[in-house]
Specification:
Chains A, B: This is Phosphate acyltransferase. The structure is a homodimer. Chain A has about 350 residues and is of the alpha/beta class. Helices cover about 45% and strands about 15% of the residues of chain A. The first copy, chain A, has 14 helices and 11 strands. An 11-stranded mixed sheet of chain A has the order 3-2-1-4-11-10-5-6-9-7-8, sandwiched between helices. In chain A, helix 4 (about 75-80) packs across helix 6 (about 110-120).
């Protein structure tokens, strides 16, 4: 289905290093036997890790040497100037030159975004890229963006995000006409600041392959009221991290509560299958990574920096985005939106 | 301990009406036998509800007639103009005239804030009031503000919130030197927009009875890294509601998971004590309501609009705030802060 698809991998990103990347590839090569992979990184290390592997590793995986790597705590501006021989830079360059359709990295998020913007530029009509994240809800999944690429956003940028989220939901989640909402402090038209009200005015008039439901409140995300929840990167980032903290807190409470007595411990053993299912449901690795939407090339940041399964999910998402043609949809849909100044 | 304390109650606020208020009072009169209560509302209805009650209801509770009430969906501006004969208005007026120290209402949040500001004004040195909420964390509790009173905030307003949160944590949570953090997209000094960076600059130099820990990220709230987490009302409101939605979603997953098989159902029965303890821990009613800090009078909005226990917790919080002298602390602490323009 994916034809001649090639995915470029920053094999040295993340805290855990290349061994989890190789473990992730075992799974990806099974699930996507038609996809080719280019691994960028220290060739000695990578060849050694691959030497033990067989099967499609010899036919579908190639290694490209990159002498350095971007550290997790390097400033994006520093990485952009000084890390042009890094595995991350080379991995992105493979997309720029056209030999790969998508890049996956578990490395420094800010550096990945900066190098992505510098090398790939933006999809036509988009003024700023955004980081999107897919959250579980009571009805399925919701795409939330921006999760931190843009600290302050005007109305047109929020419209960019709505279009990018809608295109992703159509291409990857398979929803023909996704429901899109703007996060606000209330659902009435007069609520919020100029940027959200301006974006709502534009989106209400726009002819887009989505159902714009207007303003939504925070609780509507988990309730599954929308498929795409749009907000500025400050609110999105704080909310995303607070929710991750809350999920951990509840697990912590649940574990302590279940350890309280003999009966509760016995109950926990009997219900262990159910509790494991719950744990899987809340596993942030299953979200498929942080999607850098709006870049003129597919860039996915793996959340699972220390974990092969998380990296494999991020590869799945990158492949789905390439096959689904997300960026073509974004460009086509954004072109049809009438700007606020030209509204009747 | 509370001496001659009187609490004014809007007995007609909330969806559930006055019967839950009377049930809440049964608990409050037991816990606070020294406190007097003034109930504002429909006197026929209230006298009828109280007629069956005995004990301190006859000595500590008085009823004041108010012919109308504020509806839950009325606009604050409308309520402020047209509802001056309502139970909410009269309840706030009891604080304005000095016959009560605090007011508790389960009614319309926006109207309560508007009437509170109009009638009580602000604590000296505070430019905007804020809604604070107390969240459970891995280490105890954290005060989060603003949760929605102010959509856009500058640096000085964020400083107001930090002072109000710190004073609340000292007076009510009993922490002599609370840890205060500013929510941001990262903990490095250069992160965020002008308002958070400006507020951090002011707070770093301020001599306040708190430990200013600088920028924090969303996950730090649940981890209990700070006692007070400060943010603008847009971010705070979206985050608060998203977290409430997430907690409900996880309960929903847990319930469905535990129903999956005979064994998991049996396990759930055995662990039911532990699961109930978890439920209590996550109960938003236990948070003691939404605190309207910065008003020159104590105003608490009960979350438990439909529930006596939630209302009783809100009364507890109002009493703690009055006894602890929150507003005196706010005024004294704010006066000592050097404005950004005057920083060295």
């Amino acid at each position: 289905m994916a034809g001649e698809l090639t995915v470029s991998i920053d094999a040295m990103g993340g805290d855990a290093g290349p061994s989890i990347v190789i473990s992730a590839l075992v799974r990806s090569l099974q699930r996507h036997p038609e996809v080719k992979f280019i691994l960028h990184g220290d060739e000695t290390v990578l060849h050694e890790l691959i030497a033990k592997r067989k099967g499609r590793f010899s036919t579908n995986v190639s290694v490209r040497h990159a002498p350095t790597r971007v550290a997790m705590d390097e400033k994006p501006s520093y990485a952009l100037r000084r890390r042009r021989d890094s595995s991350m830079w080379h991995a992105i360059e493979s997309v720029k030159t056209g030999e790969a359709e998508a890049v996956v990295s578990a490395g420094n998020t800010g550096a990945l975004m900066a190098m992505g913007m510098y090398n790939l530029g933006l999809v036509d009509g988009i003024s700023r890229p955004a980081i999107a994240s897919v959250w579980p809800t009571q009805r399925g999944q919701t795409v939330v963006l921006d999760c931190g690429a843009n600290i302050e956003c005007d109305a047109e940028q929020l419209v960019d995000f709505a279009v990018m989220g809608e295109a992703f939901a159509r291409a990857v989640l398979g929803l023909p006409r996704p429901k899109v909402g703007l996060l606000n402090v209330g659902s009435e038209d007069m609520k919020g600041h100029d940027a959200v009200r301006g974006a709502a005015a534009i989106l209400r008039e726009a002819k887009l392959p989505m159902e714009f439901v207007g303003f939504i409140e925070g609780n509507h995300i988990a309730e599954g009221v929308v498929d795409v929840a749009v907000t500025d990167g400050f609110t999105g980032n704080v909310t995303l991290k607070t929710v991750e903290g809350t999920a951990k807190l509840i697990s912590f409470y649940l574990r302590s509560a279940l350890k309280r007595s003999f009966l509760s411990r016995l109950g926990a053993v009997l219900a262990s299958g159910a509790l494991l299912a719950l744990k899987r449901k809340l596993d942030p690795r299953a979200a498929g990574g942080g999607l850098m939407l709006g870049l003129n090339g597919i860039v996915v940041k793996s959340h699972g920096g220390s974990d092969a399964l998380g990296f494999a999910y991020a590869i799945d998402t990158a492949i789905d985005m390439a096959v689904g043609g997300v960026n073509k949809s974004i460009a086509a849909d954004r072109a049809g939106v009438v700007p606020e100044a030209a509204l009747p």
